[in-house]
Design a protein that fits this description.
Blueprint (H helix, E strand, L loop, with lengths): L2 H10 L3 H4 L1 H6 L1 E3 L6 E3 H45 L4 H16 L3 E6 L7 H9 L4 E3 L19 E8 L4 E9 L12 H14 L4
Antiparallel strand pairs: 1-2, 3-6, 4-5, 5-6
Length: 206
């Protein structure tokens, strides 16, 4: 009889050990971390301890993620307050990019509004089609030139379309020399929040 058949039988007959308690008394199994044998109950205790350790590790990871998200939410809150403290469009544009660097430690940030600086046809189409932020490792279309002479050293980008209810009104781009700062698979929830905050702040002036 194969081990799989025995395991299947025991799963289907949970009363087996109640009907044959002497087996539990006599049954011994190898210790997982040594050469001696232990009882079934001891083995179960070891398994439970390993499971508890695994759950504790998972809980710590979840708590770390929760703390990181809370810290990000605080930064988004401070960023929003900074924008609310400005009254003209030029100040809002300056604060929107400067505070990304100061609050979020983003190395480079540029913003263009289509009313002031019409984009290329390709950039306009991309901004209208992508309603959510997009992270890539290479600058798209003509946007590398937005960063001036330092563009050749940039290795990751986050494109945040600024929108009203129906179409794009501009683009906010974050960039870094670190290829892993922004990458295609990363979550963009907080980037989306930033895009919405900036869009709402500048829209009344356009």
């Amino acid at each position: 009889m194969k081990a799989e058949n025995i395991a299947e039988y025991l799963h289907k007959n949970p009363d087996f050990f109640n009907e044959h308690p002497e087996i539990l008394t006599d049954l011994v199994i190898p210790h997982p971390y040594g050469g001696r044998t232990i009882s079934l109950s001891e083995r179960q205790m070891l398994m439970l301890r390993e499971r508890v350790k695994g759950l504790e590790k998972q809980l710590r990871e979840w708590m770390d993620i929760a703390r990181e998200n809370e810290a990000l939410q605080d930064k988004v809150h401070h960023y929003t307050l900074a924008l609310l403290g400005t009254y003209d469009l030029a100040s809002k544009q300056a604060v929107a990019t400067r505070n990304l660097c100061e609050i979020f430690s983003v190395p480079h940030a540029v913003m263009r509004l289509w009313k002031e600086q019409p984009p290329s046809v390709e950039m306009m189409a991309a901004a209208d089609q992508n309603i959510k932020p997009v992270c890539v490792h290479e600058a798209v279309f003509d946007s590398a030139s937005w960063f001036g002479e330092g563009a050749e050293h940039l290795r990751s980008f986050a494109y945040l379309p600024l929108r009203n209810d129906t179409h794009s009104i501009g683009m906010l781009i974050l960039a870094s020399e670190d290829a892993q700062r922004f990458y295609p698979e990363m979550g963009t929830l907080f980037l989306q929040r930033i895009a919405e905050i900036v869009s709402s702040a500048v829209q009344p002036h356009l």
